[in-house]
Amino acid sequence: MSASFVHLHQHTEFSLLDGMIRIKDLAQRAAQLGMPAVAMTDHGNLYGAIPFYQACKKAGIKPILGCEIYLAPITMDDKREIPGRKRATHLTLLAETNEGWDNLSKLVSKGHLEGSYHGKPRVDRNALRQFSKGLICLTGCISGPVNEWLLADDRPKAR
Fold first, then answer.
1. Phi-psi region of 48 (alpha: psi -120 to 50; beta: other; left: phi over 0)
2. Mind listing the pLDDT tens digit for each residue in 90-130?
3. Counting beta carbons within 10 angstroms of the beta carbon of residue 151, is it exposed (0 to 12), middle (13 to 18) or buried (19 or more)?
């Protein structure tokens, strides 16, 4: 595998019912494949951040801390069903800087404390605007907000 390839969207055992790989195994396998770094982007939580960071450092690769957050369709406070919309879409956020890590931690905490709906710790676009500095956003997940509109054949909203 090319030394320039890096997984940027990876779920571990801390993404219940979705992730399967154990953090230690992820770090070791990424190092075996010659990857210079690997990201951990569990669903809605940062529970594995410290063991992930430690395992990557021990394996000699760069840990990229992230999270696949749940994005509310309107606001975190709006807890009603919206016909034709998902209760939440997915956005993958990666911490690029220390400030990004602080902001990611704030977003995830805010989602759990203020935005929880049907068991999902949701945030909204206002929270993203407030805590966006130092974060990189990926939209490639099929459950992401762009794909929600593409699957509904609404290209202007996807755009």
1. alpha
2. 999 999 999 999 999 999 999 999 999 999 999 999 999 99
3. exposed
DSSP H/E element including 57: helix 49-59
Which residues in 110-137 are b (16+ Cβ under 10 Å) and which e?
Answer: bbeeebebeebbbbbbebbeebeebbbe
Tell me if residue 24 falls in helix, strand or coil: helix
Burial (CB count <10 Å: 0-12, 13-18, 19+), residue 98: exposed
Residue 24, classified by CB atoms within 10 Å of its CB into exposed (0-12), middle (13-18) or buried (19+), is middle
8-state DSSP, 144: S
- In the chain, the amino acid numbered 18 is D
For residue 94, the surrounding DSSP H or E stretch is strand 89-95
Domains of the chain (ranges, CATH numbers): 23-158 (3.20.20.140)
Encode 76-96: b = buried (16+ Cβ within 10 Å), e = exposed: beeeeeeeeeebbbbbbbbbb
Q: Is 72 helix (H, G, I), strand (E, B) or coil?
A: coil
